[in-house]
Design goal:
Elements (H helix, E strand, L loop, with lengths): L1 E5 L2 E4 L4 E8 L7 E7 L6 E7 L4 E3 L7 E7 L2 E6 L8 E9 L5 E4 L3 E6 L1
Parallel strand pairs: 2-11
Antiparallel strand pairs: 1-3, 3-8, 4-5, 4-9, 5-6, 7-8, 9-10, 9-11
Length: 116
């Protein structure tokens, strides 16, 4: 299984970026596809999640600014608008499935830097 994330980069505060993650090699569809981030000196945190039924949830800090979507059970996107300095960090995509055939896979991370 391989998760390939893309779309990170340098953007000014108030700008937008779109992250994408392609999951390959997955046989059984995930229960959830997620985006996490890790800011410098901080723990990794869940930013947004989309479940197999289509429901979504977001960290309070990004509600109204970020939108998670999935084209199918193999891609997950994160549209980030009105970016703030505190959104800076490495963003990781993650796919999770519970039993049966449980798995929990991570992408390599893509860096998002928001400047003033």
């Amino acid at each position: 299984v391989q998760l390939q994330a893309s779309g990170g980069g340098l953007v000014k505060a108030g700008g937008s970026l779109r992250l994408s993650c392609l999951a390959s090699g997955i046989i059984f569809s995930p229960n959830a596809m997620n985006w996490y981030r890790q800011a410098p000196g901080k723990q990794r945190e869940l930013v947004a999640a989309i479940k197999s039924g289509g429901s979504t949830n977001y960290a309070e800090s990004v509600k109204g600014r970020f939108t998670i979507s999935s084209d199918n059970a193999r891609t997950v996107n994160l549209q980030m608008n009105n970016l703030k300095l505190e959104d800076t960090g490495v963003y990781y995509c993650n796919v999770y499935r519970d039993y049966p055939y449980k798995y929990n896979h991570w992408g390599q991370g893509t860096l998002v830097t928001v400047s003033s």
